[in-house]
Amino acid sequence: MNNILWIVRKQLLSTFRKRSSWIVYFGLPIAAILLSMLIYGSSSGGSLKVGILNQDGDKTLTQDAIHFVEELNNVKITMTDQASMNKDIASGKLDSGLIFEDGFADSVRNGQPSHLRIVSAKGAEVTSYVKILLEGYINNVASIGQATKNDANSFDAIYADYKQSSFKFDSESLKDTAKYKDMTYQSIGFLLMFLLFSAVNMSNLILKERENRTFLRLLSSPLSARGFVLGNVLVTFIIQALQIVVTLLVLKYAIGIDSGVPFGEMLGALLLFSLVAIALALLLTAFAKNSRGASALQTLIITPTCLLSGCFFPSEIMPDTVQKISSFLPQHWLLDTVTKLQDGQAIRSLGLNLIILVAFAAVFTLIAIYRFNRNNDVRQFI
Predict the structure, then answer these.
(1) Residue 117: its H or E element
(2) Which of 335, 285, 338 is CA-nearest to residue 307?
(3) How far apart are CA 209 and CA 204, in angstroms?
(4) 3-class DSSP state for residue 78?
(5) Residue 356 forms beta bridges with which residues?
(6) What pLDDT is recorded for position 116?
(7) How far apart are CA 238 and CA 199, in angstroms?
(8) What is the pLDDT of residues 110-135, one digit of tens each?
(9) How many Cβ atoms are within 10 Å of 288's Cβ, its own excluded?
(10) Which of 53, 54, 47, 41 is nearest to 129 (CA)?
(11) What are residue 100's DSSP bridge partners?
(12) Which of the 8 DSSP states describes residue 101?
């Protein structure tokens, strides 16, 4: 045991003596968080820019409807003409346009609102908010017209009372956390890639120790080959645990992004994936004859699998065939676990996801051990 601890201490001191190691293991995950903020930070928010074209004149009902839109939260109106509206919508200066056609006020008085059009080049995504609220207001006024049955005096009297009515209500603003969930997903995706790369890089030390004959000299001491491998595995796990903790702390406290997942549950899931990464690294090391071969396998396997599993962008936007392929990758199951935890599911209800991750780690480890035992060139590591 003391020999294993000596290996752990030696490798940790050797690793963190280099400034580049601090950048690779801690700087890159933090940079990934900042990149996620740039991608999703400006994806939501801001005011809707609505152009209004009044073809119905200065009629009271029309002016009141325009004023209603003007008072909506997060809506900025611009009075315009037909040509300018079309040009500004096409260029993106306006999100949508409201056209109050001639006869709008009369149709509302008659209880059959019409002559109102909403135009946009961005679809229902930007028109639904104004449309739903404006239609609710207009239908309320139109119900007065239906009740008064073309009696102008009665309509004006009831409408005046309606405008002067005061309503008391309590409102509470809810914070939009959707973009924070997206930032967390993207940051965790990048972190998984870094965990895989760092695990393989640390496992490559086994091959490098063999190439420079240091491994043979270590075996002349009481240290066994199994102890040497176990010591390197512990070093890798410690470094990855530090990576995960630092990333989660920076994400939550330094940048202020709430992942929507309890810290302990997120930490536990990522530590479980760390075991998968270490097992995969041992597998690649078992199949590589030298450090250059391991680096080639690393590039060939890690980057494509991270791409297919959704580490770089949500897998939902990929074709169904690719989504089915991602089900055979461990990164997919970790990201799926994080997504479901963000949606409010309890960690105990995700037992299948966790079992699958354990299965990946076990299978990779067993194949690596079998390969080590069958390969005469690297049998000495086990």
Answers:
(1) strand 116-119
(2) 335
(3) 9
(4) strand
(5) none
(6) 92
(7) 11
(8) 999 999 998 887 666 667 888 888 99
(9) 21
(10) 47
(11) 54, 116
(12) -
